[in-house]
Amino acid sequence: MKFWKKKSDTTPKDLEPSVSRREFLTAATATGLATASLGQPSSKAQAQADQDVAAGGLGPVVPTEEQEAQEFDGYTAEQVDRYFVKNPASDFMVDVIKSLNIDYIATNPGSSFRGIQESIVNYAGNSKPELLTVNHEEIACCMAHGYFKGSGSEKVMGILAHGTVGLAHTPMAVYNAFCDRAPMIIIAGNHIDAGARTPGGTNWWHSAQDMPKILRDFTKWDDTCHSLTHFADSMARAYQIATTPPMGPVVIVVDADQQEEEMSVRRPQIHRRPERTAPHADANAVREIAQWLVEAELPVITAGRMAHNQEGTDLLVELAELLQAGVSNSMGRMNFPNTHHLSVGSGAIGQADVVLGLEVGNPGRTRQDARVITLGTAELFLKTNFQHFGRYYAPDLAVAGDAQATLPALIEEVRRLRSKISRSALEKREDHWRETHLATRRRDIENARHGWDASPVSTSRLYGELWQVVKNKDWAMVSNDGFQSSWGKRLWPMTKYHHFHGSSGAAGIGYGAPAAVGAALAHKEHGRFVVNVQKDGDLMFSPGVLWTAAHHKIPMLNVMHNNRAYHAERMIVQRVANARNRGTAESSRIGNTIDNPAIDFAKVADGLGMWSTGPVTDPNDLHAALVKAVAVVESGEPCLVDVLCSGR
């Protein structure tokens, strides 16, 4: 490393090396920073040292009398001027981050961004942004993913990643976020100038010519910054790109040496954070969509990652009620209340003569004579390597534009044309969907009773008991129940956007627990009671996030759905074995069970500093355990209840 003397600009090429570390220590020696003569140890200490060496060991290292008598006299004015950075470039970088309203940066510490880290904690007082300590970069990215969704699509989290090795830990989590359209800003440290690196070793191993390449297939944009002006421009651009639908992760690379340089008197411009607007659909296309919907005999709407916030949910309710159209919610987001009489399953799509797909790639199985409309932003940004976009579906009318942003105009057009729909037609639709909705509701409640008193605890009983302790609270379910027979969505009344956060995006294991912690952090400022029904196999990818939740005092109730298996895969093996007419009872366990030894998740959580209890095996003991856990959460702490459960 070099100590740089300020010249006229802030880039490495415009800074000249003034004194090396070795020269600094040599100069310090003359002023008491180091001592030219270390002196001789006392005779007693020397005798003891000789005895230890003779015995083949090394005893306590005793300082000499001269060393003990030394006192540091401080730095000279010349040394202060030459060796200390008064206006580090990383302070400016932190001001740029602040301008983007980034409240948190998750990181596992690394030397390539030490300048920014020091500026955050000392210059910014570890506030806006606040550093969140994680044990793995994948945890950091999953937390950012969950935090965005928990904030109602309002807040973006930053990540600091250390060079090649830090970024190499992020791809699965970043791919999940890319598929789920969740933005995050990853700031990666790099030693860009090979001449400034140490002659060999870690600075070389942790550096790259094209640092973001490892993530480029599933990020929206990246850039490598070579000056502070470049950093200010690219961070503003990165934020705007990341948060414009279709949203997604971005990467900014910063030079490790530049962070620690003296900044020139001329301070680069910091841009104002722009108010972003989502792309709207063409007005003529909106009128045509409205015409088709109004002319339909039985229209159905299917929604994917449509709603960005509560406004999106409310708008979809308004549109559906105007048309008395059934709404099939794929639950990529909490688009539509599951208690509404127009909330229907995916089977309703096959009944419709007109289907409107909002932010969905494939609307599902439709009638052969159905007219299908798609409205969304997927076609506005695509990459070809990773196949997240699914098989092509040819709609009758494909309209590009953000669905939520377009809904107000569509609602106005439908309202203008609504008189063309007869009252009897609207009443007939309403009666049809009410009957369909109530039949589904009755069936779900009846099915939930099966195995209610069984041990291990049935998954429906788990959700039923949980509901009893949260129903009177402002709650948020931050986990996805897709591998739990969707009992949460089937039994809990989900009426608000924050009641459910959707899926991971790419179905990548390891997302659940850290995304839940990130979401819980976003809900903390609103005082919401956060529930995470955590899958056992998923938690074992990133158990360290329990420590992060405890360390940062993020209140949330984690309830383990502990079926001691990767149960979906076990069922898949059973299905294959059945097709081949081979045994399935025991052989399907091989490679799919998490047992022998069984993991005691309560002990795992306790060892990571989180209050815990369990495993609960008797369903009659579950309520009491949950009541205790609720008290812990309401005291401001996270907790975990381990429950031994049925497979699904």
What's the arrangement of secondary structure elements?
Blueprint lengths: L1 E4 L10 E5 H9 L13 H12 L10 H5 L7 H7 L5 H11 L4 E4 L6 H10 L6 E4 L3 H14 L7 E5 H5 L3 H9 L5 E6 L11 H4 L15 E4 L3 H16 L6 E6 H4 L23 H13 L3 E5 L6 H14 L2 E4 L13 E2 L9 E5 L12 E6 L20 E4 L2 H15 L5 H26 L10 H12 L4 E3 L9 H5 L20 H13 L4 E7 H4 L5 H7 L4 E7 L4 H13 L21 H7 L3 E6 L5 H13 L3 E7 L4
Parallel strand pairs: 3-4, 3-5, 5-6, 6-8, 7-8, 9-10, 9-12, 10-11, 12-13, 13-14, 15-16, 16-17, 17-19, 18-19
Antiparallel strand pairs: 1-2
What's the gist of this structure?
By secondary structure, the chain is of the alpha/beta class. It folds into three domains: 89-259, Thiamin diphosphate (ThDP)-binding fold, Pyr/PP domains (Rossmann fold), CATH 3.40.50; 283-434, Rossmann fold; 449-564 and 599-644, Rossmann fold (3-Layer(aba) Sandwich), CATH 3.40.50.
